[in-house]
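Record type: monomer structure entry
Structure origin: computed from sequence
Chain ID: A
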Amino acid sequence: MIRTGLAVVATAVLLTGIAGAQQQSPPAAPPPVDFSKVEIKTADLGDGVYMLEGQGGNITVATAQDGIIMVDSEFAPLHDKIKAAIAVISNLPVKYLVNTHFHGDHTGGNEPFARDGALVVSEVNVKTRLAAGTTNGLTGAKTPPASAGALPGKTYTGAFKIRMNGRVADLKHIANAHTDGDTYVWFKTANVLSTGDTFTNGRYPNIDFANGGNIKGMIAATDAYLKLTNARSRIVPGHGPIADKSALKEYRTMLVTARDRMAKLVKDGKSEDDAVAAKPFADLDAKWAPTDLASKNFIRVVYHSLADKPAAENKPLLKRILHRS
């Protein structure tokens, strides 16, 4: 069973890009997305690798001689349009579908593409989150458990390679960044990096602190990407236009600035509302915040990254001692 349209649309609005701005109290119900009007745009990145852009997270398509590796899948109602766009690139089947994380605007196509024969691959925490259902830390909005057919068929920890005839994809887990299950995918021979939502080009990222996300991990992700890439690299962000290394450097500078400013407010004992009122990122907003709400939400997620105790620290002392023994 494909997740309900309402849950999918709510996820789209809460977790992606401009429409993804979140707030502390639940907003009014968003208007339904008319998927019939969504167009899939294709950009050729060279060496048989492409970026597809529609509604939701960006998709990377990498061709091999015996099939296709696909990174993320947007929403289930777009399956036919995405499949048609891929067919223009190659008549070979999608053999692997990589989930960069669990959010519905990146995993909505899991079930229909799996029915087509693709093996869905993810870091192990993605399957755990999808199977259990999740709660949005700012709004309290709940996403129900995914159906069995939407769960990844292959999970990994640490790192994993997908090897096909003429194509290798290197998958690596970045711990506690956008979520607790983020994967980046490096197509070395094509010099293309697919980041998922650990990198959003030209806009503040969402940091899903309630599900393992943390700004420190986001910065660690950009550090890893800067080591991998060069001036000729093409970087597919979770949201936003195709990027290069200079855009990634600007993004990292923004994250470090936000972390350092928020760390001072937290050290000074400021509350979340105090932090919002202080507008610590006002000079960054012109480039990174499309709306006032996006600005406030980024303040809130960075605040929670630095002010909240890790889950292990919230356990009673005796339980923590027993867990270590």
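Annotation 1: The first helix runs from residue 5 to 15.
Annotation 2: The chain has a mean pLDDT of 89.
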